[in-house]
């Protein structure tokens, strides 16, 4: 059984603030070790369920957060950037299941460190008219590759968003959001035990292949900056919805890759810190 783990950071046990998850933050070094512990709990669960091949993609920010020496020896690590498929780099139809660790709620919702990909530079995203964030795009893109997302960890907001998108995904709420930068935390040992047990249980029966999304799909993004939207219109296939909103249509895996290009364009035009 081949398992793919996409590891974000905002939804990791114990982390609540930008200083916990951004390089240079006063608690970042502690945060990256907490991230490794959550990932390792998921790896142990996969091993317990019989996984014979496990790859972990560091999917947060600079994508160099996980220290290779801190990772469980049963897993291989995809580290660094750029990555054409970003948070899903290395996922193929040959994988049996996806586990998402440390994920967070989308922009505009009250979850711990909630945002969609780029701090407040991205205001809203829609997939075929349905509001979506990192969770929904990961699930839908994995489904387009024929691979189910079977488990996700994060705060209670991320878990609720996951269930709204696909109620078959097992979730672990490692913290309860009180506000965007405040939460009630599960004790570390309890959170890691829950992650390990939930992943093992989710993989205990052969994962069921998901139904494919529509083809073509429509991906729509509203940017904080009209300059970003105007610049993206120079990319073939990108159309304007309004002064700050653009849209493209196509196969979802292609759109996911294209969205990564949009974010690189936006990053070159703006220098705003996330979580503002």
From TrEMBL:
**Entry keyword set:** Metal-binding, Zinc
Positions with a binding annotation for Zn(2+) 1: 8, 10
For this chain, one GO molecular function annotation is: metal ion binding
Note the CDD domains from the entry. Answer: DAP_dppA_1
Summarize where Zn(2+) 2 binds, as residue positions: 8, 60, 104, 134
Family annotation (InterPro entries): DppA_N (IPR027476), Peptidase_M55 (IPR007035), Peptidase_M55_sf (IPR036177)
Q: Which residues form the active site?
A: 115
The reply on keyword Zinc is: yes
What name has this protein been given in UniProt?
M55 family metallopeptidase
User: In which organism is this protein found?
Assistant: Streptomyces rimosus subsp. rimosus (strain ATCC 10970 / DSM 40260 / JCM 4667 / NRRL 2234)
């Amino acid at each position: 059984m081949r398992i793919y783990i996409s590891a974000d950071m905002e939804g990791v046990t114990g982390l609540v603030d930008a200083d916990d998850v951004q390089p240079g933050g006063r608690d970042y070094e502690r945060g990256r070790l907490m991230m490794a512990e959550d990932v390792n709990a998921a790896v142990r669960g996969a091993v317990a369920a019989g996984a014979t091949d496990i790859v972990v993609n560091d999917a947060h920010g600079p994508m160099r957060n996980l220290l290779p020496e801190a990772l469980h020896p049963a897993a291989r690590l995809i580290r660094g950037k750029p990555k054409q498929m970003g948070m899903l780099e290395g996922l193929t139809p040959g994988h049996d299941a996806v586990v998402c660790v440390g994920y967070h709620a989308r922009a505009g919702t009250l979850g711990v460190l909630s945002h969609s990909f780029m701090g407040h530079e991205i205001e809203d995203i829609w997939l075929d008219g349905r509001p979506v964030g990192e969770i929904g795009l990961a699930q839908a893109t994995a489904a387009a590759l024929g691979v189910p997302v079977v488990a996700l960890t994060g705060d209670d907001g991320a878990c609720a968003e996951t269930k709204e998108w696909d109620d078959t995904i097992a979730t672990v709420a490692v913290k309860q959001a009180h506000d965007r930068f405040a939460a009630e935390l599960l004790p570390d040992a309890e959170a890691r035990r829950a992650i390990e047990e939930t992943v093992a249980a989710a993989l205990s029966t052969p994962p069921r292949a998901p139904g494919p999304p529509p083809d073509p799909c429509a991906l729509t993004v509203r940017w904080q900056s009209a300059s970003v939207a105007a610049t993206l219109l120079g990319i073939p296939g990108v159309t304007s919805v309004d002064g700050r909103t653009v849209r493209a249509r196509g196969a979802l895996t292609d759109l996911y890759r294209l969205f990564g290009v949009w974010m690189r364009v936006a990053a070159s035009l703006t220098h705003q810190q996330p979580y503002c």
